[in-house]
Amino acid sequence: MWRDALVVGGKDLRIEMRSRVATNQVAPFAVVVLVLFAFALDPDRGILERTSAGLFWVAVLLSSLLAVQRSFAIESADGARDGLRLSGLDPAGIFLGKAGAVAVQLVALELLLGAGIVVLYDTHLRGPLLLVATAVLATVGLAAAGTIYGVVAAGLRVRETLLPLLLLPVVAPVLLAATRAWEAALAGDPGEGWPWLRVLAVFAVVYGAFGVLAFGPLLEES
Amino acid sequence: MSRALGVVAAGAVALTVVLGLFVTPPDVVQGELVRLIYLHPPIAWVMYVAFAVTALASALYLLPNTRSRMWDLVAGASAEIGVVFCALALATGSIWGRPTWGVWWTWDARLTTTALLLALFLGYLALRRVPADIATRSKRSAVAALVAFADVPLVHMSVKWWRTLHQEPTVLRPDPQIHGSQAWTMLLGFLAMTLLYAWLLVHRFRVEQLEEQLEVEGLDRALADRHAEVPA
Questions:
Q1: Does B152 touch chain A (CB under 8 A)?
Q2: How many CB atoms are closer than 10 A to CB A169?
Q3: Pair B189, B16: CB distance under 8 Å
Q4: What is the distance in angstroms between the Cα of A222 and the nearest Cα belonging to chain B?
Q5: CB of B25 less than 8 A from some CB of A
Q6: Chain centroid to CA A18: how far?
Q7: Does B23 touch chain A (CB under 8 A)?
Q8: If you count residue pairs, one on A and one on B, with CB atoms under 8 Å apart, how many are there?
Q9: Fewer CB within a 10 Å sphere, N or C end of chain A?
């Protein structure tokens, strides 16, 4: 299972490296979102700095939609989906591989967005341990839930509009918990933030396990 | 059978209305507003029952041993009723919240959870309406229903830590804060709404069955009819 995951994840990341869709489209999109927040909120009153945790995670959430859509768009061309099913790879491995590739891209995006809120919103990064732990758990949860819904919506004619409606309400707890944890860390009060990691951990475990179990039945149809 | 169920449900609803609006006394603190208690908690209860039935039916559909078209249709029918009752629960809660809390909406834990629940299952219903092969759609819908249902405790936990303003439970606690005719009327409300749910479920299920039949046979029938029209 883990070996198959590495194969699939490596394949997805290589495609992204070569096609550069993630770097040329998804990453700039994330930065544009950060800039739009500055237009919507008054940048001079310190609102951006106080709300930077929430804005950061909203930007991550919106970008994760693109990453998930992209992850299944590359399987739709040239019958790649059938190839994946014919390959004899363990469906659980395929799930872990695709989710892992999405997670790696999200981590890269989060680094970029983190730099973005420091530069654009004048945010001071405090409590690095809590920030990183939150980001890791939240990313795993987002990638797992995103990959499940990505395959649910894959190949349907309405997938572009359906995926956000399906995914965004489900990942609401991630947004809530990650934002609260980051707020606590940035405010220099990490003690308030650590309990929220439990929500993120439970979310990551539930959807990780769910994906491992459900990916087989989802792939074998159609 | 379903007609009898319908009559009993209608009777129970009518009796709840009579008892709730005319027979029971107004509350000492809340006045006439208390009458929403005969409606709002039972509606919320049916919402949870409906979504639980959807999740259960979806799980039964996904398990190879119990896979049957019936479970998929039950899941869809129940989710639809659940969404309607979810919207009703939000609406009745809002009507109560405006005079009591002074606002139509507040970011209270249960309100927020319920609103997200509505969004989750609206997404599920949208997925069920997607034009696709029936078996594909059913399987994906079943997974989506379970994903959404598994999210409910997570949403609840996170939102509850975030903020809490909602009334603490009135009935389900060691010393219930409700007595006499009010308690009985509320109990009747629960019964009436549950019967209503059962009746709606039966009918929605039948309609779904017919819809599916139409989807499968519709074109063949239409073609056959058209061929019959053309003189040989």
A1: no
A2: 21
A3: yes
A4: 6
A5: no
A6: 20
A7: no
A8: 89
A9: N
Cα(A68)–Cα(A64) distance, rounded to whole angstroms?
6
- Asked if residues B118 and B47 have their Cβ atoms less than 8 Å apart, the reply is no
The pLDDT, as a whole number, for residue B170 is: 56
User: What amino acid occupies position A94?
Assistant: I
**In contact, B59 and B141? CB cutoff 8 Å:** no
Percentage, residues of chain A above pLDDT 70: 99
Number of Cβ within 10 Å of residue B27's Cβ equals 14
C-alpha separations of A141 from A138, A144, B213 in Å: 5, 5, 39
Residue B114 corresponds to which amino acid?
T
Which ipTM score applies to this complex? 0.81
Residue B178 has pLDDT above 90, yes or no: no
Identify residue B207 by its one-letter amino acid code: V
Judged by a CB distance cut-off of 8 A, whether residue B144 touches chain A is: yes
A204, closest residue in chain B (CA to CA) = B154
The 3-state secondary structure of B58-98 reads HHHHHCHHHCCHHHHHHHHHHHHHHHHHHHHHHHHHHHHHH
- pLDDT band (50, 70, 90) for residue B162: confident
Distance (Å) from the alpha carbon of A120 to chain B's nearest alpha carbon = 28
Residue B164 contacts A where some CB pair is shorter than 8 Å: no
Q: Any chain A CB within 8 A of the CB of B79?
A: no
Distance of alpha carbon A72 from alpha carbon A63, whole angstroms: 15
Cα gap A26→A28, rounded to integer Å: 6
Enumerate the residues of chain A whose CB falls inside 8 A of the CB of residue B65.
Answer: none
Q: What is the pLDDT of residues B104-123, one digit of tens each?
A: 887 777 788 889 889 999 99
Contacting residues of B for A153, CB less than 8 Å apart:
127
- Is residue A134 within 8 Å of A182, Cβ to Cβ? yes
Residues of chain A with pLDDT under 50: 222
Flag whether residue A21 sits within 8 Å of chain B, measured between CB atoms.
no
Q: Look up residue B65 and give its amino acid.
A: N
Tell me the shortest Cα–Cα distance from B183 to chain A, in angstroms.
36
Q: Is B95 exposed, middle or buried (0-12, 13-18, 19+ CB in 10 A)?
A: middle
Contact B147 A207 (CB under 8 A): yes
**Mean pLDDT of chain A, nearest integer:** 86
